[in-house]
Design a protein that fits this description.
Helix content is about 50%, strand content about 15%. It has an 8-stranded mixed sheet with strand order 3-2-1-4-7-6-8-5, with helices on both faces. Helix 1 packs antiparallel against helix 10 and helix 9 packs across helix 12. The structure holds guanosine-5'-diphosphate-alpha-D-mannose (GDD) and manganese (II) ion. The site of guanosine-5'-diphosphate-alpha-D-mannose has 26 residues, from strand 1, strand 2, helix 5, helix 8 and helix 9.
């Protein structure tokens, strides 16, 4: 005889699992079929407006040379590019190395975080188009600036960001592949809900400052631009490479998750201000996926363990299915991401990591 309690627990367990996996799979498949043809934005003839490229740095001596060389290798008139490096009192040779180039260097005496530094640079930028870019990233396409300017030439577009590919293609790759599809789909529908500091181009008139209490400066800036009813697009022609930490991978992923959690908690409060109906749905789903969905997994695990202890047959079968599914890298990546999101929410309660330790890359 199965007791009522076990039946209730089993139904709850199966509902939770279905919801936890079902919604993201549905969202992914929906986005996969949504690709808008962006060609029309790319191939128009453009003038070359002045573009200010801002590189925030804190102890980037290993990367800064490659970073500046990479920007200078772009197909865009050099006299139409203003490179601004904003350094928050690095203790290494970052500034010394950058000084050898024709780069505007802004120094801060005290480190007050990336967003604070970006604001300082923004106030000193002359371009009508701004691109922010992390020192440890590279742009694969030599036309990245030009393409983003082409897009921004359109009145309805306020910002453009890259999709990301890692140099190191281990676990990060399967995570990225999933997420890039979603970024491109969301962009086709209206706007991406997440933007990347490795390449984030925008019209200065629509963004006067970055929020200094928010880790995800990039995504929140993108979101603020969409509140003007402008689109913010992740573009597949603009690919960023970034370094994945050799040490401290776990901490890095948790910090990034913390920043996303902070961002979606604020973005959801803007729900009523969002004018585009589709983007409203995007924010709602992403809020659910980042803040609520991970807990459904945790709850399922607890219920599952309880039922296993009672030697419940169905839960044993479910457990075996779960173990077999771990063969798939996507499943493992997924579960790891849920763990990061849960830890992130807890950690945000006592340390938001607005100023963070550099991981060794
Ligand atoms: N000026 C300044 N001051 N720059 C900083 C500071 C600071 O206090 N802290 C970090 N930076 C710079 C780094 O030197 C680098 O160029 C860039 O900001 C990004 O920092 P990383 O240490 O590489 O962080 P990440 O790769 O994990 O950051 C990613 O997530 C962040 C939000 O979670 C990127 O996408 C960032 O753009 C994003 O802000
Ligand atoms: Mn980085």
């Amino acid at each position: 005889m199965i007791s009522t309690l076990i039946v209730i627990l089993l139904i709850t367990l199966i509902t939770l699992i279905t919801l936890h996996i079902g919604l993201p799979i549905f969202y992914y498949l929906y986005m996969k079929n949504k690709e808008e043809d962006f060609e029309k934005y790319i191939n128009n003839e453009i003038s070359y407006p002045l573009v200010s490229i801002i590189i925030p740095t804190y102890n980037e001596e290993k990367n800064i040379k490659d970073k500046i060389d990479d920007i200078l290798s772009q197909n865009y008139p050099k006299d139409k590019i203003e490179i601004i490096l904003v350094d928050s009192n690095s203790t290494d040779k970052t500034v010394e190395i950058a000084s050898k180039y024709n780069v505007k260097i802004l120094k801060q005496e005290k480190r007050m975080g990336k967003a604070n530094a970006l604001n300082y640079a923004l106030a000193n930028a002359k371009g009508e188009i701004i691109i922010i870019t992390d020192a440890d990233s590279k742009w694969v396409n030599k036309d990245a600036i030009k393409i983003s300017v082409n897009f921004l030439n359109n009145k309805k577009i306020g910002a453009v960001t890259c999709i990301k590919k890692q140099y190191d293609e281990k676990i990060e790759k399967s995570y990225r592949d999933l997420y890039n599809v979603i970024r491109l789909g969301e962009s086709s529908i209206f706007s991406t809900s997440i933007a990347h500091g490795e390449f984030f181009a925008f019209k200065k008139e629509y963004l006067t400052n970055f929020d200094e209490n928010m880790g995800a400066d990039d995504s929140y800036a993108s979101h603020k631009i969409t509140l003007n009813n402008l689109r913010s697009l992740a573009v597949k022609e603009i690919i960023c490479n970034e370094l994945v930490p050799k040490k401290g991978y776990f901490h890095w992923r948790v910090r990034r998750a913390q920043h996303l959690v902070q961002y979606f908690s604020v973005a959801i409060k803007d729900y009523k201000k969002i004018r585009n109906k589709d983007y409203k749905k995007i924010i709602l789903v992403e809020y659910f996926l980042h803040l609520i969905n991970p807990w459904l997994l945790l709850l399922s695990i607890f219920i599952g363990i309880y039922l296993l202890l009672l030697h419940n047959l169905i839960s044993i079968i479910l457990f075996i299915i779960f173990l077999v599914s771990l063969i798939s890298k996507t499943v493992r990546t997924w579960i790891l991401t849920q763990i990061f999101l849960i830890i992130a929410q807890i950690k945000n309660l006592y340390n938001k990591e607005i100023i963070w330790e550099k991981e060794e890359k």
